[in-house]
Description:
mainly beta, 8 strands, 0% helix, biotin, Biotin-requiring enzyme, Biotin_Carboxyl_Carrier/Decarb
Amino acid sequence: xxxxxxxxxxxxxxxxxxxxxxxxxxxxxxxxxxxxxxxxxxxxxxxxxxxxxxxxxxxxxxxxxxxxx
Length: 69
């Protein structure tokens, strides 16, 4: 499943690594948006397959940031 950013912002760090098991609502990414920390949680249980971004990247709302299968 593609995980998308809800708001535009800057990727700060990953909370889970590629290959990690996740459950629903596990935090995948911390980002900064509007000078506040925002979290991107996993909407599904599975394994983190890939990140489409790197820390420091700026993303727009709706951008695919990760893949969880």
